[in-house]
Amino acid sequence: EVQLVESGGGLVQPGGSLRVSCAAPGFTVSSTALTWVRQAPGKDLEWVSTIMTTSGNTYYADSVKGRFTTSIDNAKNSLYLQMNSLKSEDTAVYYCGKGRNIRTMTRGQGTQVTVSS
Predict the structure, then answer these.
(1) Are residues 110 and 4 in contact, defined by beta-carbon separation less than 8 angstroms?
(2) What distances in angstroms separate CA 47 from CA 15, 40, 59, 70, 74, one per listed residue?
(3) Is the pLDDT reported for residue 1 higher than 90?
């Protein structure tokens, strides 16, 4: 059974940094594509980043490029999203997912990130 568990969300001031994590107890993270998506209140699901773990290639939405970094830790079987220079518009529930199709991929329960002064 595919399981994903996000953690690390919280409240941060504009310009600050935060790292969210995604543990994957049900499969090996190095064997598949992994995706971060987010959903702000009243808005549709938004793709943030995808890492192709077999090649190491990573892709980012224009809205986060240069500020966010996706990585994996094979020893911990986990996925991470390092978020720097956070803006109020980054406020959302962040989800990790197995695969690339944000509509059909299995996702975790999400972690809330709030950027506010």
Answers:
(1) no
(2) 21, 12, 10, 13, 23
(3) no
Pairwise CA distance, residues 18 & 10, whole Å: 8
Residue 116 banded pLDDT, cuts 50, 70, 90 = very high
Alpha-carbon Rg for the chain, nearest whole angstrom, is 13
Nearest to 22 by CA among 2, 40, 41, 42: 2
User: Which secondary structure element, helix H or strand E, spans residue 3, and what is its range?
Assistant: none
2 has pLDDT over 80: no
Query: Measuring CA to CA, which residue among 37, 33, 8 is closest to residue 21?
Result: 8
Q: What is the DSSP letter of 85?
A: S
Note the residue count of the chain: 117
- Alpha-helical segments (H) within the chain: none
In whole angstroms, what is the distance from residue 41 CA to residue 108 CA?
18
DSSP annotation of 104 reads T
Answer whether 8's CB lies under 8 Å from 21's CB: yes
C-alpha 24/C-alpha 85 separation (Å) is 27
